[in-house]
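Page 37, continued from 36.
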């Protein structure tokens, strides 16, 4: 039998989905087979647990949470069983990810039509359960439309097959036929009136003219009638060529009014958004100029056109503005994949972007995906805005305008009783509004806890009775997902950000300047859209290695939120459960930029560890002391300075550590992971080499009048890997600069910060600013070589010392050597480098971009420099290398570390041709590469040094 996870760490991670609702489950299970699902149902009966099935947990309606047993099919029950390219169908298990199925189908020129914005992590089983749609539903329909058959397990463990024409059980067929015949008029006049009428059960599919399709009728039941154990879905032929026309309108209302007129053959999407979504995107770090590719206007429609030839697709796309001449003000048509992706990114990020309003306030789901007949959308949208204005609420609409479906997050105040009352008022009046337009309170995400209570507003008592009869056929005892659709829970019951969510609101060490100084507000950035569960991109490496919800960014955010609530996790900052949830966080900072709402789990983890343990060296003593690795790695900068005072000490350490027995003893004493190899040290620190190379000069003393730069001697470059530092000095001098190093010991505090020793981090930074003050006053650029240290100086320093103007100055002056060289080149500075080449042609490089640089700084300038040097660079796309500084040396992390290395990095290096440069600016990355593949990685500065002509290099 599958493991029953009833520990509080796991239960806290599953307390919510992407909705505003909170339900603490009794247990979670992740079955691998049909038999294990059956055993779980037996266990749930024995313990009196209701059952909720869950896929990717991206539901915004609260239909993937519950207080009983949560059965998560996404981790193991996720195989593609077969694809029939002739019949254009796929037979799959429910936990298959949408993109996983699309990738497999693409080998046959096919795809799966429904594609919600969460397609990289939503399971097909969950999509069918909610009757999800996506941007291509104009052409390919809803999940129900693309469903051929289902196998479902009922509460007694029976499996029933559902398909067009009936089911595998005559008794169920008779019961469903009776429902159809008793409510024939209702099924024909209230249900199935327009494509996005998703609310309630799809009983209209039981009509004779619909083929008595019991599988389609079961779609959209939201786990309330049984557990899907197998699906056969329809695949569609991908258009041979596509072009994207983006049409600009005066505002979102005009775009909504025009949308139905664009529903013509060959148009695959009609997606809408307004300028307020673009404004919200531009408040995100690094996105200040986003949307420059869009045509003029205050509202836009994204219309993808498909055809047999590219010329035909482009021509059809250019014709679309002519269909709405009275509305459109501008348009742009693109056919290149990169151009289209850049435009689509704005729309697809909407679900996360709009959870933070442009002025910084929070916005929430609740009225997430209402839909009306497309011809009424413009009117409905104007009235919806009027209602928001009347109740002093703000929201940002976007969505599937061609289908009449609107997504919106609204500035509800859930923290007060008055705000909760306003929430109910708005929802009730909005339901009445959508009913007036003949619409549905749900257009693709299901009703869940957010809208089930509202079904009585949009449907007649007879329709509600038919829904109840349908549920009783499959689930007579209310075993599955109680409180949803039938006998609904109140819409304002158990709201996660509601009153009581911030019991342990304490003053943090970090400024949390983007969250009003509140750690709770920072944690509440996570709304659960689940981007961290994707296997694409750099976020989240620990989830990509384990596929465990606990070890996703979302799972950690949920644990922190439960800690702050104090209801289930009751010991606040001392929580062992939250510590466990944070343990596999690599602090890679991918979530700080890849998460649509910029959750920064690395910072949250540092803050938690600081409060969890005592401070200073005393935190390493006593029963609840810090792990010894946090001393060995965290205090490394200071330990190295002590060792430096003893002549020849580093050579002696290297000699002793070359003995395996000594190395093993050192690891045991230092609390280091036994499977790791210890690093070696330079014979002398870079700073000593530099002092011996040339006499120290005070700022401004340069007879040659060369511009001055400061090279940052980070701990790793200074003591462990001095070659990049020496190369950087030679490179910068060859470029015409005078190079200085700080006149005393400096440190960015990285190792203390990543281990959550924030008091020491602040002290080290203040001491560093004292040393740096003359250089800051002179305004010299500060060039970092170690990316993680550079990020500390550019980003973290102002959050840790927010009131110190010197910290802001350091942030402004600090850059990478690649960015500095690219700017130098752009400004026409001397370029003494030759192109690197081999006898076979241009030099080639496999490049591992440090996770902090990838997330916070970007690597574009470095690629410009490499291109100028004639290096053909292949960037490894898997995100963090898997070592992540101190994390990879801590006990218990080795297997996950190696799994991450094997995702893309190690295979890319092993597959590289002889003579290929292995480029990695991070010391951790080079260490991981060396220990995982035996290859020697080099820094960009070393590549630039190799490109200096022999005469130039020899002079230096």
């Amino acid at each position: 039998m599958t493991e029953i996870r009833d520990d509080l760490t796991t239960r806290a991670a599953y307390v919510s989905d992407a909705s505003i609702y909170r339900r603490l489950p009794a247990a979670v299970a992740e079955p691998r087979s049909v038999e294990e699902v059956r055993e779980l149902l037996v266990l749930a009966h024995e313990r009196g647990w209701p059952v909720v099935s869950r896929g990717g947990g991206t539901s915004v309606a609260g239909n993937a949470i519950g207080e009983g047993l949560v059965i998560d099919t996404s981790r193991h029950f996720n195989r593609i069983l077969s694809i029939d390219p002739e019949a254009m169908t796929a037979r799959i298990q429910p936990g298959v990810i949408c993109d996983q199925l699309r990738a497999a189908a693409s080998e046959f020129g096919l795809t799966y039509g429904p594609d919600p914005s969460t397609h990289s992590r939503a399971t097909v089983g969950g999509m069918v359960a909610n009757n999800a749609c996506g941007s291509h539903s104009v052409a390919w329909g809803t999940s129900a439309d693309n469903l051929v058959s289902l196998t479902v397990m009922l509460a007694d463990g029976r499996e029933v097959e559902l398909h067009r024409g009936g089911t595998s059980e005559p008794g169920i067929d008779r019961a469903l036929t009776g429902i159809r015949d008793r409510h024939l008029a209702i099924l024909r006049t209230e249900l199935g009136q327009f494509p996005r009428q998703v609310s309630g059960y799809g009983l209209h599919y039981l009509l004779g003219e619909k083929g008595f399709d019991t599988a389609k009728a079961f779609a959209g039941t939201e786990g309330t009638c049984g557990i899907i154990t197998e699906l056969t879905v329809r695949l569609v032929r991908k258009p041979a060529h596509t072009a994207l026309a983006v049409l600009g309108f005066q505002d979102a209302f005009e775009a909504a009014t025009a949308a139905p007129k664009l529903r013509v053959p060959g148009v695959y999407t009609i997606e809408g958004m307004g300028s307020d979504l673009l404004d919200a995107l531009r408040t995100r770090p690094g996105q200040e100029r986003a949307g420059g590719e869009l045509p003029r206007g205050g509202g836009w429609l994204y219309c993808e056109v498909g055809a047999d030839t590219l010329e035909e697709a482009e021509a059809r796309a250019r014709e679309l503005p002519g269909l709405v001449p009275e509305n459109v003000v501008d348009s742009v048509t693109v056919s290149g994949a990169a151009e289209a992706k850049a435009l689509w990114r704005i729309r697809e990020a909407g679900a996360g972007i709009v959870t933070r309003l442009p002025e910084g306030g929070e916005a929430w789901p609740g009225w997430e995906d209402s839909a009306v007949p497309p011809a009424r959308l413009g009117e409905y949208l104007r009235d919806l805005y009027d209602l928001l204005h009347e109740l002093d609420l703000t929201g940002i609409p976007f969505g599937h305008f061609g289908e009449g479906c609107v997504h919106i997050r609204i500035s509800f105040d859930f923290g007060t009783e008055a705000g909760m009352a306003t929430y109910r008022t708005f929802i009730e009046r909005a339901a009445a509004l959508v009913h007036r337009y003949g619409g549905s309170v749900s257009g693709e995400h299901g009703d869940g806890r957010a809208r089930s209570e509202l079904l009585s507003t949009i449907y007649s008592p007879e329709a509600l009775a038919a829904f109840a009869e349908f549920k009783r056929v499959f689930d007579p005892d209310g075993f599955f997902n109680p409180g949803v659709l039938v006998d609904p829970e109140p819409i304002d019951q158990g709201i996660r950000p509601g009153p009581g969510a911030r019991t342990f609101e304490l003053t943090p060490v970090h400024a949390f300047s983007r969250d009003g100084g509140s750690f709770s507000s920072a944690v509440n950035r996570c709304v659960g859209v689940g981007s961290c569960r994707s296997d694409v991109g750099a976020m989240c490496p620990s989830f990509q290695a384990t596929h465990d919800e606990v070890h996703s960014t979302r799972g950690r955010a949920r644990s922190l939120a439960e800690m702050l609530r104090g209801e289930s996790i009751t010991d606040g900052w001392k929580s062992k459960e939250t510590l466990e949830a944070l343990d596999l966080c690599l602090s890679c900072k991918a979530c700080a930029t890849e998460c649509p709402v910029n959750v920064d789990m690395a910072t949250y983890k540092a803050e938690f560890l600081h409060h969890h343990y005592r401070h200073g060296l005393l935190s390493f003593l006593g029963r609840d002391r810090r792990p010894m690795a946090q001393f060995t790695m965290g205090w490394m900068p200071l330990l190295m300075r002590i060792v430096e005072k003893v002549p020849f000490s580093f050579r002696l350490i290297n000699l002793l550590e070359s003995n395996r027995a000594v190395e093993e003893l050192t690891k045991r004493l230092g609390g280091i992971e036994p499977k790791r190899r210890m690093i070696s040290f330079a014979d002398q620190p870079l700073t000593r080499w530099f002092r011996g190379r040339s006499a120290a000069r005070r700022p401004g003393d340069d007879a040659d009048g060369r511009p001055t730069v400061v090279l940052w001697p980070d701990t790793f470059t200074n003591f462990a890997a001095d070659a990049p530092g020496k190369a950087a000095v030679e490179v910068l001098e060859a470029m015409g600069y005078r190079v200085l190093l700080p006149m005393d010991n400096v440190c960015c505090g990285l190792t203390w910060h990543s281990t959550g020793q924030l008091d020491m981090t602040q002290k080290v930074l203040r001491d560093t600013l004292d040393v740096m003050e003359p250089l800051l006053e002179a305004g010299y650029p500060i060039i970092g070589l170690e990316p993680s240290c550079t990020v500390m100086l550019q980003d973290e320093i102002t959050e840790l010392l927010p009131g110190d103007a010197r910290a802001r100055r350091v942030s402004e002056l600090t850059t990478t050597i690649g960015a500095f060289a690219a700017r130098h080149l752009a400004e026409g500075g001397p370029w003494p480098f030759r192109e690197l080449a081999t006898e076979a042609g241009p030099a080639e490089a496999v490049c591992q971009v440090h996770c902090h640089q990838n997330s916070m700084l970007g690597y574009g300038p470095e690629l410009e420099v490499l291109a100028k040097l004639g290096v053909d660079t292949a960037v490894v796309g898997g995100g963090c290398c898997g070592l992540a500084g101190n994390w990879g040396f801590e006990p218990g992390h080795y297997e996950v570390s190696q799994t991450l290395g094997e995702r893309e990095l190690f295979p890319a290096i092993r597959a590289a041709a002889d003579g290929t440069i292995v480029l990695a600016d991070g010391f951790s990355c080079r260490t991981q590469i060396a220990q995982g593949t035996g290859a020697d990685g080099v820094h960009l500065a070393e590549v630039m040094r190799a490109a200096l002509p022999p005469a130039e290099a020899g002079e230096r």
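DSSP finds 43 helices and 27 strands in the chain. Flag for discussion at group meeting. Residues 758-778 form the longest helix (21 residues).
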